[in-house]
Amino acid sequence: MKTLSVSNLIGIKYLQKNDISLIFELATHFKEVINRPIKKVPSLRDVTIANLFFENSTRTKLSFEIAEKRLSADIINFSSSNSSLKKGESLLDTVQNILAMKVDMIVVRHPNPGVAFFLSKKIKAIIINAGDGTHEHPTQGLLDCYSLLQKFGTLKEKRIAIVGDIAHSRVALSNIYALKKLGAEICLCSPVSLMPKNIQKLGVLQSTDLLETLKWSDAVNMLRVQRERMHQSSFPCLRDYALQYGLTKSLIEKIDKPMVILHPGPINRGIEITSEVADSNQAMILDQVENGVAIRMAVIYLLASKLKISTNESPTA
Amino acid sequence: MERILLDQQKIQIILHRLCCQLIERYGGLERIVLIGLQPRGTFLLDRIIKLLKSKHHIDQVHNGKLDVTFFRDDFRRTEKPIKANQNLMSVVIENRHVILIDDVFFTGRSVRAALTAIESYGRPSTIELMVLVHRRFSRHLPIKPDYIGVQMDALVGDKVKVSWLENDGKDEVYLQKRT
Questions:
Q1: Which of A71, B85, B121, B128 lies in disulfide reach of A44, CB 3.0 to 4.6 Å?
Q2: In whole angstroms, what is the distance from residue B38 CA to residue B65 CA?
Q3: Which residue has the higher pLDDT, A141 or A124?
Q4: pTM of the entire predicted model
């Protein structure tokens, strides 16, 4: 059956491999759609989606919004900075009030891990997690894998390195789950202070040596240092971090083999990656952004297909 | 229960006639674009192109393959699985005569979806419809084909299927009775 095994997208952890394949298959069709002269299809013209962003976002918010518009959905946007949350309203009350306006689907980003899961248990609407704290960012994990698949054809036994601030990254966890389900080998590389405890239980390799990690890998996903989530400094200074864990042209020349470079954005140029590398042909950063729209269209379309329209006649006044 | 309605020979004769009708109407076919509807209409499209080339020496016919999955009006209303197909529409349709091609015309809903989908690629001068089988008295919409291979009547629950040599092993049109 060509449908997802889940009714909400809380995390890649809850998806099966077939779900991921189905999303990728549909994303390929949507990628063709967004490259047409008229980049819109009418599939979701009777679906209303609320984008609830309780945390700052540029790329993800715009990407979801454009994906929803390309599918002809009605959209309402909410950001916590100018809302009644400031007046003391609880998260659940805010969401329930928005749902009372007959919203079918909610895309939620929140600084606290588990918010998407919590909402999925409390409310009757389809939930898509657009990032919950340091937990998961499933659509980013999917689009990273989709971008890699386009490059490699298959991810089976491909060696993928995830480098940087693993401890504060939701992208890392979603990438690990997705890459493992697709058969890739993963090595995490970061300073010890930015490596989560017990992460090896997920079946990944760990390293603190960037050059050795790069020599081992076919592709590398460079993560941003998330200073806004650090309650205490995890390394002496940014310059020190950049020297040890920044991806530079000279480092790439040393490994002497083709390397695919991903970055989920936003980029801190000169810290985790230099401008030279970020703008090189090896970097897939802008491909990731384009693929992000297609992946989000596929996820929204597949979840919306579970919203069946009632054919019963409604009582008339 | 299955009953054969058209065999290979009859299908071949019909395909020849459809080609001749196109040439009678449009001459050298420079201004027309043939668009096969995915998935089954594309087999008829390929056959028409092949015949135009081999029997009428028309080597160049503008053509494309259109998938209408995301334009269908039964999304969220059916339990049928979603299965999109490849869209191959690198052809220019602006100010050209578009001929949509499908194997069986039944309710007209796929063609309605195709009429919306084709707008994404430009504004053709005209749009016409060619089908191999026209199931009469089954339309849901005010749409009907312009080029018809064969007309037939079948009960609503019955299925009219077209099998193609290159995909299904033989050329045949058959009726599957409702069980």
A1: A71
A2: 6
A3: A141
A4: 0.86
Token pair belonging to A205: 């390799």
Mutate to test the interface with B, among A41, A69, A71, A312 (most CBs of B within 10 A): A41
Q: Is the peptide bond before A266 cis (omega within 30 degrees of 0)?
A: yes
Q: In the structure encoding, which two tokens stand for residue A288, read together?
A: 């990731």
B81/A36 CB distance under 8 A:
no
Closest-CA distance of chain B to residue A153, Å: 18
B166 phi and psi angles, rounded to 5 deg? -70, -20
B81–A38 C-beta distance less than 8 A: no
Exposure string for B50-87, b = 16+ CB within 10 A, e = fewer: ebbeeeeebeebbbbbbbbbbbbeebeeeeeebebbeb
Residue that the structure tokens 């050795």 belong to: A212
Chain B 120-159, residues with CB within 8 Å of chain A CB atoms? 120-122
CB atoms within 10 A of CB A207: 18
Confidence of residue A223 (pLDDT cuts 50, 70, 90): very high
Q: What is the pLDDT of residues B47-97, one digit of tens each?
A: 999 999 999 999 899 999 999 999 988 888 877 767 888 888 889 999 999
pLDDT band at A81 (very low <50, low <70, confident <90, very high): confident
Amino acid at B89: M
Q: Which of A101-110, A145-154, A302-311 bottoms out in mean pLDDT, i.e. has the lowest?
A: A302-311
Closest in A2, A36, A42 to B82, CB measured? A2
How far is the alpha carbon of A35 from chain B, nearest alpha carbon, in Å?
10
The DSSP code for A55 is S
Question: Can you state the percent helix, strand and coil of chain A, rounding each to 5?
Answer: 45, 15, 40
Interatomic CA distance for residues A207 and A190, integer angstroms = 7
